[in-house]
Amino acid sequence: MAKTEERVKRSRRPTIRDVSQLAGVSRMTVSRVISDPDLVLPATRQKVASAIADLGYVPDRAAGSLASRKTGFIALMLPTLTNANFAAVAHGLTEVLREANYQLLIAYTEYDMAEEERQLRNLLARRPEAIVLTGATHSNAASKLLLSADVPILEIADLPSRPIGHVIGFSNQEVGRTAARYLIDKGFTRIGAVGATVEGEVLDHRGEERMRGFEDELRYAGLPTDAVVRHGKAPLSYDHGAAAIGVLLDKAPDCEAVFAVSDLSAVGVLMECQRRGISVPDQLSVIGFGDFEIGRIINPPLTTIHVDFNGLGQRTGKTIVELLKRGVSSETGRVDVGLSIIERKSVKT
Amino acid sequence: MAKTEERVKRSRRPTIRDVSQLAGVSRMTVSRVISDPDLVLPATRQKVASAIADLGYVPDRAAGSLASRKTGFIALMLPTLTNANFAAVAHGLTEVLREANYQLLIAYTEYDMAEEERQLRNLLARRPEAIVLTGATHSNAASKLLLSADVPILEIADLPSRPIGHVIGFSNQEVGRTAARYLIDKGFTRIGAVGATVEGEVLDHRGEERMRGFEDELRYAGLPTDAVVRHGKAPLSYDHGAAAIGVLLDKAPDCEAVFAVSDLSAVGVLMECQRRGISVPDQLSVIGFGDFEIGRIINPPLTTIHVDFNGLGQRTGKTIVELLKRGVSSETGRVDVGLSIIERKSVKT
DNA sequence: ATGAAAGCGCTAACAC
DNA sequence: GTGTTAGCGCTTTCAT
Description:
By secondary structure, chain A is of the alpha/beta class. The first copy, chain A, has helices at residues 2-11, 16-23, 27-35, 42-55, 61-68, 84-99, 113-124, 140-148, 172-185, 205-220, 238-251, 263-276, 294-297, 309-326, and strands at 73-78, 103-108, 130-134, 153-156, 166-169, 191-195, 228-230, 257-260, 285-289, 303-306, 334-336, 340-342. Chain A has a six-stranded parallel beta sheet with strand order 2-1-3-4-5-11, with helices on both faces. Chain A has a six-stranded mixed beta sheet with strand order 7-6-8-9-10-12, sandwiched between helices. The first copy, chain A, is elongated. At the A-B interface, helix 5, helix 6, strand 2, helix 7 and helix 8 of A face helix 5, helix 6, strand 2, helix 7 and helix 8 of B.
């Protein structure tokens, strides 16, 4: 009997109360030793510390969050994690938030709008202290939820025209425009692009922005946009590019240069060209977006548009920490991290 | 004045109490509508639902967790997220856990043992209902923490000899042995390998297992192991392979075949060979591990050892759900998901 | 089918 | 520097 009692006691996780009793102090003192040790006399601190160690006490943040109204959670919504650039964002963000003792809560939607609101509700129920959104096309319901959360909202990796919070990103339209201008400046006149379709529930909003920017610039230069092909759906990968370039070439066999909304697609284009005996860049020039590592490796090495996603994540993290510590950020509400062209060998010069 | 009062009221997030008052029911009834609607009369349910909608109420899971002692969190510790295979594990896991309404809490250590315990403490403070570990070399302190957490522990992507919980994975040693046997069977006698060094705080435990298995098999066949090279540190990437093959070739210029502990390194090897004018597979055969997408793309396409990481994640998720719902799993405590060789063109036949 | 009481484990605010 | 009191927003348990 006594033995059972004992076992029951040992199997229950130690609480702050157990620590306080063992150390012979109040629970508040234990709490202080954990959250702000300097408030406590070294001798007391020592007693408490060894009680904690003896019991193997680990505080319960759910209880702490409830009492302090601070959860230490930062929510991050991404389209997908299996994309090196989004993973880099999460990575940079974590690096910074770790220091400040925040825990990232990641949700991803697979580019599915229906999933978005569901995920958002789940995140909100965890009471994050800030919410980071990536390329989400917020539904009305989602926007309402977001606003009523009453915490900083950061929209990153884009430059929305009607932002609902802080913005740290780059213009996806500008990416498209830059790609078009680059190709036009090289003297090409028969120019195309490959991206995903925009219909249905699953869509890559940011990719579509790049497509639009590209088309705009083409039109601005008085060039036709009939070789701009939307095919298949996000997430884009090698196979997408391979299939899409086939469609494009059927429509516009005389096409000289192509922009792929993602390096992943661009690589697929390169492969398919190799298969068809189309020489890149001699017969067809290719420019991508994202500066994925594979672009450096492939032959010919891929000319692409680069954005520092890891830095973007870090910058976002720093802004959040400032916002939460000081209530303001040194950044303005809208930061453009810019982009750059990485010239390699897939565009004819 | 009254206006300010009002604003203050509106800015406070609605609680379950607000909902209950607006709906004219008790808080418990609201709670039931949310967690198990069938327990409530349709008419009442309707009243409550519209009160929830009107107020934009989102439950506070921290409070719920405290009361119910169920957080809905599953902890996942990874070496890094910027590795397609680990990302695939997280992905598969999320897919399954989402259905069952669990939220994944991801921590990663960058192969840093010092970071491991710190991260673990953070995770434990969130009271996860299960803990998933990947290739962690648990320190004593970490193991103690883990055990006293008193929740299911799943060790995945490995087959530890002295497991501390459920195991779902594959043998990294067997990967190495399989690679060696494959090369030996092809008739090679001068065989090497490239991996990371094992010294310091930063180490890739699982990669080292693959190296050991490889060496073992070489020895078993009576072959020398002097061309097995440990160079640089994790995480491995293209540059690692490029540098390491240089070291290997200096030591053993007559080497005919190489195993790279990661496809990423293998690709680096391929690149460096191209630079040096060494033809693969004619002069040097290469086999990798991980079946990264790039291996399909590169020229020559990479022969590699494949493991279904996404499936591994899904299987882990299913086991967790079973364990948590029914207290038992249909799987035994040790599951080997196996591996397969993907023969492409980088090994001479 | 619904409600009342009690309490989960912690910390804010104030007292001493 | 340390303790006391009160409660954070929910759910458990038991009553009706």
